[in-house]
Design brief:
Length: 760
């Protein structure tokens, strides 16, 4: 410690002309030990300044003073315990500092140093508490011994404290002086006399210099006064500038706030303009939608424009915030009211027109008997054709009502064609035989896709038997052939005309190829509701209907190769879309979506027995089987999850080379752990877990047959897993007497009971 003290005196306190009187190594109580040095120092100048300095020790062993306290500000020194020798003490300075030192001896020495400084320089200003009184009593100054004539220990200590180490410059000057006066030292009186003379000379020189520098002192004082005045002036200017800057800051803050307000106003203005421009429907459009005469061509044209404007307003892209605005909500309600009112008016009007056209008698009474010409329906088509834009609007906004109108058209016009064709065939027979046919005949129902009634008509026979034809003379046969040719020509023209109208007016696909760029598009753009249970997807059901309908139409086609190619494209697109959509449902697992849909496809392809689709049928079965096994395997471990994890670990240890009889000595797989896991699965808990599994299957699977298939597969695999567990117990824990708390018979009973239960 002495070497540290000397080093601190030399490096830190000598350059500051301070003396180091006491040191102690300390660290803060209750924290990670980080040692510092507290130093008690006094200055060499008068009046004496007594200080307490905290010195840090760097990683490189360098000393650096970090905090200075003056002892005049110290209020209390707390030794913590006056009886017990403790290494802790507190110093009350600007706050309470709690310190800990290495030994009680170091603490005692440092507190004695502080006591002496308090006695000598601070007139007992500092209070010392919790310190053994004997320590402080030993420090009371002793009187001079009259017999020995010696002073006490305290006097010697004070004498030591009066000693001040010479500064470096003082030492150098003293050595120089001794060198110059080496010969005179022998005569001490002469040497003292010489020093006294030199001192007097120096005093006179100093006095003269002081007198000579008086003017300079006055000049310096004057400059200092001017500097103070200038300083006061600068302070006033700085204060004024500070006030200006504060005002500028307030203005800048206000400008910033104004900019924010301006931007918000601009955004609000833009939003308002957007809403006003896109959600404003003129009064003229609203009036024409409510009151326009659909029989008047001018009003009809205005209605079409108004409907287009209404659709544009209704389809405006609105955020959730927009929809919360009262004005926006009122406009949307207004648009919906206008749409419903006009939709009802238009549907009633077009429905009435179709029904009246179906009841029209002009097509029968004005038929040309001599030339066997069917009266054209082009005039009727033209009346309806003007409503084509509104039909497109209706199809986009309300497909259900649109399809109902299509069915009304098929039924009404079917009756019209039935009456017209009955009269037409009656006239044809009269032309050939001279007698009218009074037999009634009927037409079959129209198809779901709204094809013209003529597409499925079972045409009436003209009752010409083969013998009759043979007995006819040549002229008669020519007449029959001519009439038949006229009949077929008129029927072809009528069917084509009606088909073209339906394709255009109702936007119905006309060919098999077009029905197939539509089916595939319908499949590829399909979506599912994320929060709804998913079974057989709608486009898969429509694929079945499409294949059945197409096969019926083209059953007798000579070259179905192109048709099979179209089938393959549709089914491939269906497979891809099923796998893409399977993971989008939040209520039905993706594996279940693929199981049900691939099973459905496999099922109806097996029923249709289309030769060109045999490979697709096999592919559907393969996918269905794969996802079925995957679903069963994924859910199989849930009822006995912990037990399954335990034996998986056992099998892993065996795969790593551990012998079967040594597995039981592994810490995580000993007999106690096995018993603990088995105890978690009594029969009651197993049945409860299987019931939860069955309910999940019932919730996920919509096909009862698939539910039975999955449940039987789970039963077989579960029993197989149970038997594997029993076998591992016998192999790895022989003679332990450990058995499962349920048997195979129990499992069969649980599965059977749940299979017959009603979980709905």
């Amino acid at each position: 410690m002495a070497s540290i003290r000397n080093c601190l005196q030399r490096e830190i306190f000598t350059p500051k002309e301070e003396r180091l009187l006491g040191t102690i190594q300390v660290w803060k109580a209750g924290k990670r030990r980080k040692t510092s040095i507290l130093c008690a120092t006094v200055s060499s100048e008068c009046p004496v300044q007594v200080s307490l300095v905290k010195v840090k020790i760097s990683d490189r062993g360098q000393y650096k003073p970090c905090i200075y306290w003056t002892l005049r500000n110290m209020q209390l020194v707390d030794g913590k315990d006056a009886v017990k020798e403790t290494c802790e003490f507190d110093l009350h300075l600007d706050k309470v500092y709690k310190w800990v030192t290495n030994t009680f001896k170091e603490k005692k020495s440092f507190l004695i140093c502080l006591w002496k400084l308090n006695q000598r320089y601070l007139q007992n200003k500092i209070t010392f508490v919790n310190i053994n009184p004997e320590i402080l009593e030993d420090l009371v100054p002793e009187t001079q011994d009259p017999e020995s004539g010696e002073t006490g220990e305290s006097d010697r200590q004070e004498e030591y404290e009066r000693y001040q180490e010479l500064l470096t410059k003082e030492t150098t000057d003293l050595e120089k002086l001794m060198d110059q006066c080496e010969q005179a030292v022998a005569d001490s009186e002469a040497f003292v006399q010489m020093l006294t003379t030199d001192l007097q000379v120096l005093d006179q020189a100093n006095l003269k210099e002081i007198i000579n520098s008086e003017k300079q002192v006055h000049l310096i004082v004057q400059l200092i006064e001017e500097a103070l005045k200038e300083s006061e002036h600068l302070e006033k200017q700085l204060s004024a500038h500070e006030d200006l800057l504060h005002t500028v800051k307030e203005h800048m803050d206000n400008i910033h706030q104004l900019q924010i307000i301006d931007r918000n106003h601009q955004k609000l203005y833009e939003e308002v303009i957007y809403l006003v421009e896109n959600l404003t429907l003129s009064e003229e459009h609203a009036w024409i939608l409510n009151n326009g005469n659909l029989d008047d061509p001018k009003d009809l044209e205005l209605c079409i424009k108004a409907v287009q404007a209404l659709s544009g307003c209704s389809s405006t892209n609105l955020t959730a915030g927009h929809r919360k605005l009262q004005a926006v909500a009122e406009q949307l309600i207004k648009f919906e009211s206008l749409r419903q009112n006009f939709e009802n008016r238009f549907v009633n009007h077009i429905n009435k027109m179709i029904v009246l056209q179906g009841m029209d008698q002009d097509f029968i009474l004005e038929s040309d008997i001599d030339s066997l010409v069917l009266m054209s329906h082009s005039a009727r088509h033209r009346k309806l054709m003007s409503f084509k834009p509104l039909m497109e609007w209706l199809k986009n906004n309300n497909p259900v009502i649109f399809n109902d109108l299509l069915m009304v058209y098929s039924e009404s016009l079917g009756k019209l064609y039935e009456r017209q064709l009955k009269e037409f065939f009656s006239l044809a027979r009269f032309k050939v035989t001279g007698a009218k046919e009074s037999r009634r005949f009927s037409f079959p129902d129209t198809t779901e896709r709204g094809l013209p009634p003529s597409s499925n008509i079972t045409w009436p026979k003209l009752n010409f038997s083969v013998p009759d034809r043979l007995e006819m003379d040549v002229g008669r046969r020519e007449l029959v052939d001519k009439v038949l040719e006229q009949v077929l020509s008129q029927l072809e023209h009528m069917c084509i005309e009606e088909q073209e109208f339906i394709i255009y007016f109702f936007n119905v696909e006309s060919t098999e190829d077009e029905s197939e760029e539509a089916q595939r598009k319908d499949i590829e753009n399909a979506k599912i509701a994320k929060k709804a249970k998913v079974g057989v997807l709608p486009f898969v059901s429509r694929l079945q209907e499409f294949l059945i309908l197409t096969e019926n139409v083209f059953r007798n086609a000579e070259e179905p190769r192109d048709l099979n190619d179209a089938y393959c494209k549709l089914i491939t697109a269906t497979f891809n879309t099923i796998e893409n959509l399977s993971s989008q449902s939040l209520k039905t697992p993706s594996q279940v979506v693929m199981i049900e849909n691939f099973y459905f496809i496999f099922n109806f392809l097996s029923e249709l027995k289309i030769p060109g689709l045999d490979h697709k049928r096999k592919e559907a079965k393969k996918k269905y089987t794969h996802y079925l096994n995957l679903y069963v395997t994924t859910n199989l471990g849930l009822p006995l999850e912990k037990l399954n994890e335990f034996f998986e670990g056992v099998k892993t240890r065996m795969a790593q080379g551990i012998k079967e009889e040594e597995v039981g000595f592994q810490m995580a797989y000993n007999k106690q752990e096995l018993r603990r896991v088995i105890e978690r699965y009594p029969g009651k808990e197993v049945r409860k877990s299987l019931e939860t599994l069955y309910k999940n299957n019932f919730k996920h699977l919509s096909d009862p047959y698939l539910l039975q298939v999955v449940w039987r597969m789970m039963q077989d695999d579960f029993i197989r897993q149970y038997q594997q567990f029993v076998e591992l117990i016998e192999r790895c824990y022989p003679g332990s007497g450990i058995t499962m708390e349920f048997t195979v018979e129990d499992l069969l009973k649980y599965f059977s009971e749940l299979d017959c239960s009603d979980v709905s």
